[in-house]
Design goal:
Pfam families: Thioredoxin (PF00085). The protein is an alpha+beta fold. The chain has a single domain, classed as Glutaredoxin, CATH 3.40.30.10. 39% of the residues lie in helices and 25% in strands. Strands 2-1-3-4 form a 4-stranded mixed sheet, covered by helices on one side. Helix 2 links the parallel strand 1 and strand 2.
């Protein structure tokens, strides 16, 4: 499996969902992320990171609440937001970074 750094250094936008298994809103994000991935296909990568299993990574990106969504491209943070984000809004944000 590729390292996190390898994945986020992609020239495609990478949507990272920092989540926790015990988090209610995180469970609401799962079908939204699937919907976005289904609609956008290979234009984007979607990665789910369990903050309880990856505490160092969560700390590295200062994730304080879950879900926190971060869009990376070429290893740089292009957008981030905590809380549930609707599929249409996510698609719009990701489309801005597809080139």
């Amino acid at each position: 499996m590729d390292s996190f750094e390898t994945v986020i250094n992609s020239d495609k936008p990478v949507l990272v969902d920092f989540f926790a298994t015990w988090c209610g809103p995180c469970k609401m994000m799962a079908p939204i992320l699937k919907d976005v991935k289904d609609k956008m296909g290979d234009d984007v990568k979607v990665l789910k990171i369990d903050v309880d299993k990856n505490q160092r990574l969560a700390a590295q990106f200062n994730v304080q609440g879950v879900p926190t969504l971060i869009v990376f491209k070429h290893g740089q943070v292009k957008w981030r937001q905590s809380g549930v984000v609707q599929a249409k809004q996510l698609q719009q944000i990701l489309k801005e970074h597809v080139a």
